[in-house]
Amino acid sequence: MTFSHDSSGSSKWSLANLRRALTCAGLSRGTFRATSFPTVRYLLSVLILVFFPLRWALWYFKNDKSKSWTENLRLISKFDTVEDFWALYNHIQQPSKLGFGCDYCLFKDGIKPMWEDDRNKLGGRWLMTLNKQQRHNDLDRYWMETLLCLVGESFDEASEDVCGAVVNVRPKGDKIAIWTSNCQNREAIMTIGQNYKERLSVPIKALIGYQSHDDTSSKSGSTTKNMYSV
């Protein structure tokens, strides 16, 4: 196994070498998707966090009518290690426990969870809408899987197009979305959508759609058309 060196002189594996090592050990991507054992299933995500840390920021939005939208958006914490990720995750409320109108947003550090951010404005989102019953059965699990997809860079090279993810808790039905940087980058978007749907074990016949932020911001959610679907 070869190592590369960063400017500080520390050693780390290349992402390709890490995947090759896991494959040689019998831990191919198919193994992770098929296994029911959480320790093995999340190993790749954990290893990528260890060797290829990427700084993330978790935001919280509370729907206080007396404040502006930006005043309601609050940065909770930033992390770039496995320990900090799990410490943060284990010490905040699950989405199903949040009040209506509240959001969690996990974005790469330097990208704000808003359409107007330079890294978001040309992009869009894979959007999954949950019914009321799914709040208790699926919401928390889906959100955790979404976080692990992001921090574990589960979309291979297409992970570079990922900006972040948002969970919206709403009376009529909750929503989870993965935001990407360029709505015209079809290859990356489809890779993300297909892998995400498989990761969440969404039934094949159940479609999830991708919408551009430009369309979403100019129309109501019910009339926004999907650019892509899987």
TrEMBL record:
It comes from Sander lucioperca. GO terms for molecular function: RNA 7-methylguanosine cap binding; translation initiation factor activity. The keyword Protein biosynthesis applies. Belongs to the eukaryotic initiation factor 4E family. GO terms for cellular component: eukaryotic translation initiation factor 4F complex. This is Eukaryotic translation initiation factor 4E family member 1c. PANTHER family: EUKARYOTIC TRANSLATION INITIATION FACTOR 4E FAMILY MEMBER 1C, EUKARYOTIC TRANSLATION INITIATION FACTOR 4E RELATED. SUPFAM superfamilies: eIF4e-like (SSF55418). The gene is eif4e1c. Keywords: Initiation factor, Membrane, Protein biosynthesis, RNA-binding, Transmembrane, Transmembrane helix. The chain crosses the membrane at residues 42-61.
